[in-house]
Give the backbone structure.
Amino acid sequence: MSKVAIVTDSTACFPKELIKGYPMFVAPLQVIWGEESFQDGIDIQPADFYTRLASSKSMPTTSQTTPGYFAEIYKSLLDQGYDILSVHISSRLSGTLDSAIQAREMMKNGKSRISLVDTFGAGMAMGFPALVAARAAMQGATLEECRILTENAVKRSGVFVVVPTLEYLHRGGRIGGAAAFVGSMLNLKPIIKLIDGRLEPVDKVRTFGKAIERMTDLFLKDVDGHTPVRIAIHHANCPQEAGLLLERVRARFSVNDVSEAFLADVSPVIGTHVGPGTLGIAYLAGM
């Protein structure tokens, strides 16, 4: 029977307990703060990150996982007899997938045993497809079967985000400057969606509360009755608000239509670009 390992990256924002026991390996991106460098989710945890962010006079930046880091993971797994499915953040948001491609090329043997998937997503919109693959791998699925499942899950996944301020997205270059300018001038709260791997404003309202309501409606429109649905409520250091949003979202479905639903911290790398107080809804619908 084939053995398949899933390699992914820290921008999935997995709750740690969610992936315990699966053949899944999470490569951290980097948070760079002045002269210090931290591995996302390893050297710096969300709570510590947001506490420091609140009082810091300097702002952190981020960097992709290096090809060398991926190469070490790949070689170790290949030597253990694993085929590898590497599932990553949108190539239009990060160079992480490019690092994974370079790492595969560094393998003297076993290149054909490594498949790569660009999810065009982030957060659990990337995490759910990777998790689908890991669960299939546990049941003995082949590398090709895991790849096909993952690519199908990518097509059925999405994520919406509401940020209290566009300052962080604008500073990091992850959203157009014109949108940031209009939002700040008019004090509008945009609802942002990952579309074709890029963060795009899809609507805007006057208050943060109204933005959360509108995000929920847009999420339900996207799901369009396709069940079962898997839901992750992402939050950047606002667990109470996230819990209320999870209750609100779950109430819009019958119990049997939701196969899993949980809260997920926004990792320090993602938090660098969205800022504290951010709320999001990531989902996988129909599988």
User: Anything to note?
Assistant: The mean pLDDT is 93. The CA atoms of residues 104 and 268 lie 27 Å apart. The domain at 157-285 is CATH 3.30.1180.10 (Hypothetical Protein Tm841; Chain: A;domain 3).
